[in-house]
């Protein structure tokens, strides 16, 4: 355990951030302590170790590859993820894109313990398996398989700590093909039997699962909650006293899990308090990943503000609102084309009432799930027309629904952005604005830029999409954040819906 810190990390600066528990650096590095064999987040509240006993790593996988175990108090699996977008050299960008695919739990659920492996990701990125392994190890100091193994083990650790799922379900939910492989990997990495980590008096079966998720300040929680409150669909979403609640359904292969969640911000601790219904326990890693995306908890404000603060000095805490379900976001974006927020909300509520499945929850106001792709794809034109949806939008809604239902279109953070943009714009009624908006919120592409948006052009003081695009070049690769900041400068709020 005497391996030096990761090249490029300034050890004394990392130690200072750890000493002050500076949440701005949470997830950007991890501290391994040679005297204990444990690695922690910089926000960990344990007794400060001696400087000479500290080794600093950029990624949890590097710490684990060097023989360190995750801290049971600060729980590295709850840290914000490292930023995966860059304007640096191509090799670094490629390695970060590969890591981004590995970090997406929706890609773990194929039942194959080998994927998403290096060969699969290399094919997706258009390079050879050997080249990907080489640049990945240069960037991260571990192989893609080691990186994936760490992600799966940390997901399993969270399920063990926060749920009462049987170990068989823990293994499968965290991406392992068998309990035997899971147990072997867990013991090899952590020198503990998985059952030894289950906390006494922890989560009880039938009760909501409580999780704390970290984020890096500054964060404008009021703006984020206000964004979702103005667009809340009755039956699916509810807001009360600063708590956002909603229903959701997670589909993993042939399995489907329906339930609800509630979240609220603890800004003093730079955390989100998340409650998840017990019915979603088996899909907890996916739920947490989607909540992080929905609230943009993994954003790196230091990098983003360095590019945008000069142009938008009042927007340092703004984040890009995401979604828990890319299909739902796409449907809502189509419903909101060229109409007000209130009108789009009305159409969305009618769609939910007509085609959303009923669900029982203990949360007041949560009674329905958002309609499935199959339900919208099979709806008749007359049924949609009675809701006030015009034929052009009917065609767009059903085209998206068919593509998603048939598996030809995936709308999540691990999707191929250029290919998905092209696929969306090939559908009837989907233009550049809608495709870019879906990319910004569902695909989590930080450089998405709906240049044709009239409100955006007004905020930028231009009158054409071309002029808006030219004005945006200095903000790459964070133009999606620039869009939110530009919209936020408009007063009163822009009339066009940002669904």
Give the end-to-end Cα distance, rounded to a whole number of Å: 50 Å
Shape: globular
> Which spans have pLDDT < 50 for at least 5 consecutive residues?
109-115, 492-499
Radius of gyration over alpha carbons? 22 Å
- Multimeric organization: single chain
Helix content: 40-55%
**Main β-sheet: number of strands, strand sense, barrel status?**
5 strands, antiparallel
Total number of helices: 21
The proportion of residues in beta strands is 5-15%
Structural class by helix and strand composition? alpha+beta
Strand order of the largest sheet: 5-9-8-7-6
Number-wise, the strands total 9
Mean pLDDT across all amino acids? 88
Following the backbone from N to C, one meets helices and strands in this order, namely HEEEHEHHHHHHEHEEEEHHHHHHHHHHHH
How would you sum up this structure in a few lines?
This protein is of the alpha+beta class and 499 residues long.
Question: Care to describe what's here?
Answer:
This protein has 499 residues and is α+β, with helices and mostly antiparallel strands. It contains 21 helices and 9 strands. The chain has helices at residues 11-19, 60-65, 90-102, 118-125, 129-140, 144-162, 167-173, 179-190, 221-230, 284-295, 301-308, 326-335, 341-355, 373-377, 381-385, 391-405, 417-425, 432-441, 454-460, 465-472, 479-488, and strands at residues 30-33, 38-40, 54-57, 69-70, 209-214, 237-240, 243-252, 255-266, 271-276. A 5-stranded antiparallel β-sheet has the order 5-9-8-7-6, with helices on one face. The chain has a 4-stranded mixed β-sheet with strand order 3-1-2-4. The N and C termini lie far apart (50 Å).
């Amino acid at each position: 355990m005497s391996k030096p810190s990761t090249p490029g990390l300034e050890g004394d600066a990392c130690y200072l951030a750890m000493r002050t528990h500076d949440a701005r650096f949470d997830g950007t590095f991890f501290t391994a302590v040679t005297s204990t064999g444990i690695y922690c987040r910089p926000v960990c509240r344990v007794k400060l170790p001696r400087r000479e006993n500290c080794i600093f790593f950029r990624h949890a996988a590097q710490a684990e590859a060097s023989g360190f175990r995750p801290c049971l108090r600060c729980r590295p699996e709850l840290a914000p993820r490292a930023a995966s977008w860059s304007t640096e050299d191509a090799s670094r960008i490629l390695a970060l894109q590969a890591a981004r695919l590995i970090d997406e739990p929706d890609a773990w659920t194929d039942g194959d313990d080998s994927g998403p492996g290096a060969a699969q990701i290399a094919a997706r990125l258009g390079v050879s398996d050997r080249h990907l392994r080489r640049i990945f190890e240069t960037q991260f100091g571990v192989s893609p398989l080691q990186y994936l193994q760490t992600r799966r083990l940390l997901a399993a650790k969270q399920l063990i700590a926060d749920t009462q799922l049987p170990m068989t379900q823990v293994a499968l939910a965290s991406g392992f093909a068998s309990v035997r492989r899971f147990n072997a990997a867990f013991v090899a990495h952590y020198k503990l039997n998985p059952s030894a980590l289950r906390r006494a008096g922890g989560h009880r079966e039938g009760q909501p699962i409580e999780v704390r998720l970290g984020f890096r300040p500054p964060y404008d929680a009021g703006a984020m909650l206000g964004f979702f409150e103005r667009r809340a669909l009755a039956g699916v979403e509810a807001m009360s006293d600063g708590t956002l609640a909603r229903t959701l359904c997670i589909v993993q292969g042939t399995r489907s899990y329906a339930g609800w969640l509630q979240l609220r911000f603890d800004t003093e601790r730079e955390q989100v308090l998340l409650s998840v219904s017990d019915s979603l326990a088996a899909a907890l890693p996916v739920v947490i990943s989607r909540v992080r995306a929905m609230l943009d908890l993994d954003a790196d404000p230091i990098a983003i503000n360095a590019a945008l603060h000069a142009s938008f000095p009042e927007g340092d805490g703004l984040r890009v609102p995401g979604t828990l379900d890319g299909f739902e976001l796409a449907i809502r974006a189509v419903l909101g084309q060229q109409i007000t927020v209130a009108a789009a909300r009305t159409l969305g509520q009618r769609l939910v009432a007509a085609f959303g499945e009923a669900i029982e929850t203990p949360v007041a106001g949560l009674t329905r799930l958002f309609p499935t792709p199959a339900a919208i794809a099979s709806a008749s034109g007359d049924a949609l027309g009675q809701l006030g949806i015009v034929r052009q939008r009917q065609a767009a809604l059903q085209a998206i629904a068919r593509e998603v239902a048939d598996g030809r279109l995936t709308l999540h953070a691990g999707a191929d952005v250029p290919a998905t943009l092209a696929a969306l714009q090939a559908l009837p009624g989907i233009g550049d604005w809608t495709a870019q908006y879906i990319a910004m919120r569902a695909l989590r592409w930080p450089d998405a830029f709906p240049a044709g948006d009239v409100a955006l052009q007004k905020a930028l003081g231009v009158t054409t999409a071309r002029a808006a695009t030219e004005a945006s070049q200095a903000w790459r690769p964070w133009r999606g954040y620039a869009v939110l900041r530009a919209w936020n400068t408009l007063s009163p709020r822009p009339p066009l819906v940002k669904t």
